[in-house]
Amino acid sequence: ATTARIGVQDYYNPDGSKRRELRPPEEVADPESLASFGLKSLTVDHPPIFLDADNTGAYQVGMTDSTVLYKHGFVNVVVNVTDAEAIKKIRSGEKQQLSAGYT
């Protein structure tokens, strides 16, 4: 799955307004940044709170793998989806996009 890319990105502020930020290649391809995408919980949509040991079970539908690659301006990571409903949404095309969900 593609989890990040270079270029100008649209982000939303807590008040719902949109802002645009440049994600330059040296930031997106930084080894520390790439490593941060591996072995993370996978959710459907953005949970209303950040995940921690107390609430992950309520939202997690899988995990990202430790295999993270940067190529031609895109960050790709292997995802393992283990939740039947999430798999159904992916197969039907209802869910097609992935967000890294970071601040």
Concise description?
The protein has 103 residues and is an alpha+beta fold. It has helices at residues 25-28, 31-35, 56-59, 84-92, and strands at residues 2-5, 7-12, 18-23, 41-43, 60-71, 74-81.
Number of helices: 4
Approximately how much beta-strand content do the residues carry?
A: 35-45%
What would the principal axes of the Cα set say about the shape?
Answer: globular
Contiguous uncertain segments of 5+ residues:
none
- Overall average residue pLDDT: 92
Arrangement of strands in the largest sheet: 1-6-5-4
Walk me through what this model shows:
A 4-stranded antiparallel beta sheet has the order 1-6-5-4. The protein has a two-stranded antiparallel ribbon with strand order 2-3. The chain has 4 helices and 6 strands. It has helices at 25-28, 31-35, 56-59, 84-92, and strands at 2-5, 7-12, 18-23, 41-43, 60-71, 74-81. The chain is an alpha+beta fold and 103 residues long. The model has no long low-confidence stretch (mean pLDDT 92). A hairpin with a 2-residue loop joins strand 5 (60-71) and strand 6 (74-81). 21% of the residues lie in helices and 38% in strands.
